[in-house]
Amino acid sequence: MTDTHKSGTAAVGEPVADARPPRAFLEVRDLKVHFPTEDGLVKSVDGLSFNLEKGKTLGIVGESGSGKSVTSLGIMGLHTVGQYGRRKAQLSGEIWLDGQELLSSDPDHVRKLRGREMAMIFQDPLSALHPYFTIGHQIVEAYRVHHDVDKKTAKKRAVELLDRVGIPQPDQRVNSYPHEFSGGMRQRAMIAMSLVNNPELLIADEPTTALDVTVQAQILDLIRDLQKEFGSAVIIITHDLGVVAELADDILVMYGGRCVEYGTAEQVFYEPEHPYTWGLLGSMPRIDREQTERLIPVKGSPPSLINVPDGCAFNPRCPYADVPKGNVTRTRRPELRDVGGGHRSACHMEKADRERIWNEEIAPKL
Amino acid sequence: MLTYLIRRLFAVAVMLVVVMLAVFGIFFLIPEWTGLDPATMFAGKQTDAQALEGIRQKLGLDDPILVQLFDFFRGILVGRDYSSAGDSYHCEAPCFGYSFKTEQAVWPILADRLPVTMGLAAGAVIIWLIIGLSAGVVSALRRGSFWDRAAMSMALSGVSLPIYFTGLLSLAIFSYGLGLVSNEYTPMEESFSLWFSGMILPWVTLAFLFGAMYARLTRATMLEVMGEDYIRTARAKGVREPVVIRKHAMRSTMTPIITLLGVDLGALMGGAILTETTFSLPGLGQAVLKAIGEKDLPLILGVTLITASAVVIANLIVDLLYGVIDPRVRLA
Ligand SMILES: Nc1ncnc2c1ncn2[C@@H]1O[C@H](COP(=O)(O)OP(=O)(O)O)[C@@H](O)[C@H]1O
Ligand code: SF4
Ligand SMILES: [Mg+2]
Question: What pLDDT, on a 0 to 100 scale, did the predictor assign at position A348?
């Protein structure tokens, strides 16, 4: 399956029940994260699989509420800590990181991997940093949790990283508090903190969403440079395809807690298969077009994750729901199928219909 | 931090002056409104006109108000002399005048009683913080458990039961019934253990009322803080959960607690008066109740000034703590 796939990652579509050893650095198999609530079971992630190699970047794209953050917190093992008195999240599937399965591992073992093997950058650096501790203190803490060194050594390391992520006068700024930094600087500090232990896997959950447009590009450039330098595997999560356009090797499009399209960046950008991806591409801001000229973005609201629509979860919003013959779109859930070269899509449409619609209706408007 | 400190100290000095002005104003006006003549009250039974005139002169009651105000401040800060023809005596600083009833200087009377009230208040604060915070934290972390429900029911009764009820009940059970603790006040200098034994019930009674409120506030704040993004960040760094709670969560939980503490140190005086009466503690509360009954103005004035200053200074300490905890306060 991975033979023809030119990048280091590959989708694993079918649910895997066997305990075959992992082939990739990070291998997520049929991950499900369900939350029992008063109103019913919220299926935030419902059968997600993907692979990621070191040195590669995977972009996970989908609108708000599609389960992106829940996926990343699931990999980090953060659904199972500190759920005081709450109903427990139900996780199933397998998460293999560097040959170890995490869901069945001892929680304290996973804690030791957090911050050292796998690290995370969050959307809003202001709320993600503790307002009462200096930036330096927080980076030092991240380092000393995993390294038995004195504070002075750790602080030197913090200054070094602040310098590396482009914070001017790092030896002074290390003593500043988060509220004394600008939004972009805060996110840089957050990145420095996540990289302090040289993690092999870095998950950036909407790292630029809370930032000014001008700062967004700088932060993305920084992440790309650091990835080259550190050689880690990177997952970038975003609701904006534009963010991952230049960064990602592979792209996974999520809808309603599931993967609807998966492929290399070229495949997803130049030969997108799924109507939802077309909508995402159509809603991408472009400098060379007038707002009105653009394809209409996806209308309607995301599906309920408690009562997921029968058949294709996208069918209430899909303009082409009637193209596949019969009522199949509303009765049967489309499987993730290989459409060539490792490129996968979950749609009932025939190849001919799909190509016609893409060539005649979609591509000219993009 | 230094400029913050200086600013706060300056504010406190201003506050103290305002308090003194207000107290002076009120006590200067009371005789006007009520028709009570301080000289008559001071003189007691001897009411011949000449003696009264002597007292008026001594107390400076006929002086212009600004002169009286100046003497009042001077008395508190450096002491003052009371004199009329031939008869003169010095009142040491801080001078709050002389009791109408006993003709003793007010300050030494209060100075005797101050340690009792301070000991009661300080002990109660320590107990209610320890009990309130730990009950609140455990309740939050074991939300919905038996322990949570038990602690919160206790807290509810603590908030709703009046001091004289819990006070007398605990006296009846632990002192008269079981004989576990002393039921009378012994000064600390005489015997520390007897003092301690006599203070346990008053402390716990006063602390119960406030501790209940703190348990509820701590629980609510803790639950909110545990959902903050920075708590998730700490966990994502691999910090152990007990450290996440003790360090990251507790630090933020302290902020509203300390704010409330600043407010409650004033309210504490009311509770202390009730507690002192219930347990017959010879503190300021008892003295002021008696003074009110006897219309002993100088004594009331003295207690008012001392408690007001205590509240202002306690608030200064709270503000400084606030600055230590939250770096954003220092800069604001
Ligand atoms: N602890 C939880 N309990 C119940 N529902 C949750 C919980 N966490 C997330 N969800 C739900 O899961 C869905 C996906 O959330 P999320 O992964 O945050 O979306 P996004 O793709 O925007 O990051 C949302 O509908 C959210 O309401
Ligand atoms: S399966 Fe039907 S509803 Fe779903 S995306 Fe394809 S065409 Fe649209
Ligand atoms: Mg999200």
Answer: 95
